Amino acid sequence: MGRISPRAAIAYHVPTTLEHDVSHALDRRLETALRLAAEAGRLALSLAPPPGAPVASLKHHQDWLTEADGAVEAFLARECAAAFPEDGFQGEETGTGPAGRLTWVVDPIDGTSNFARGAPRWCVSLGLIEDRRSVLGVLVAPALGETFAARDGGGATLNGAPIRAAATTDLARAMVECGWSPRRPNAGYYTLVQGVMDSGAMLRATGSGALGLADVAAGRIDGYVEAHINLWDVAAALCLLAEAGATVSPFMAGDRPAHGNPIRASAPGVAEALAAIAGF
Q: Do 125 and 61 share a structural domain?
């Protein structure tokens, strides 16, 4: 190879040993997460009820719990600990286990209200958090035949194909999902929905925050807004959104991730207008 000019040498970056080790560690975890989430999805699918009235119990108002939630979370907790005993684990149903530099955050069934009625729009969400940042995310929606995956610096994919947030620049040409939470007054939700509709955007609500955020990453919709959502609902999706070039509100700021935060994710071209409507 010829001599590299001083100007070219500045741009020519040789990965350090540390960078290589970190990248390799994430690759190993992504491979494992894809395998475990797929197995967890098959387990959940085997426990899915037929279409009809909800087959579940209520933890709180419209906050459903099924047999599959506990079974899937127990499976993922056990398998993550076996594969990476040095990592921490946090699940929606069982709470936080031993802390680690890296922490797996799991929603065993996101979209439980859909799952409990035998509807297909639900997923297993498996995210990896390091220092208040999502560095890996896998969402498996087995009834839809879809797998979303991303890792820090490695891009985002849907069923192995690269995805990007939409290039939409006008809310009047946009589709926006407004997630509803029983933890916030309905009046605020009505105001949000009215603002989105007044902008000319098409309104959507489908019952899975994780898949709604993943759809923003894939460019299927242009925005997702919810006044209160929990870490386990977004841990995987945050990495997808970052790698797909979406604009996201600072969900991990302050100490609120432990208790839930609002979230706004969108195509960059409508981010400012959607933020004005959402108020955050």
A: yes
The H or E element containing residue 228 is strand 223-229
Q: Which residues contact 236 (CB under 8 A, 6 or more apart)?
A: 105, 125, 126, 127, 134, 136, 137, 138, 139, 148, 210
Could you give phi then psi for residue 93, rounded to 5 degrees?
-90, -35
CA distance 217 to 226: 16
Tens of pLDDT, residue by residue over 221-230, are 999 999 999 9
Q: Between the CA of residue 32 and those of 25, 179, 243, what are the distances in Å?
A: 11, 30, 19
Contact 68, 59 (CB under 8 A): no
Match 């007044």 to its residue by tokens.
198
In a shared domain, residues 24 and 121: yes
Report how far residue 204's alpha carbon sits from residue 120's, in angstroms, rounded to the nearest whole number: 17
d(CA 174, CA 202): 6
Q: Which residues lie across from 224 on neighbouring strands? A: 177, 265
Q: Is 56 exposed, middle or buried (0-12, 13-18, 19+ CB in 10 A)?
A: buried
pTM, entire model:
0.88
For 120-133, the pLDDT digits (tens) are 999 999 999 998 89
- Split into its structural domains, the chain has a count of 2
